[in-house]
Design a protein that fits this description.
5-stranded antiparallel sheet; single chain; alpha+beta
Amino acid sequence: MTAKPRKPWRVIPTQNGVQLAEVEHTSEAKAFEHVRAALRSGADTAKVMQWSDGRWWHFETVHAEEIPDA
């Protein structure tokens, strides 16, 4: 089994189907802070991945229209 990474949360923002980045985080809260910031900055979706049971799992996909304006 592969060891758990130090940052077991990953955010992958996309715009028009193009991946903009892949950013790792230490907690769910920090990952979702990044989701909100990315979607308010022009990304149209953000996929959240979580490391569990030795691999990355799709946790949630958030769309820009789901985030209220700041």
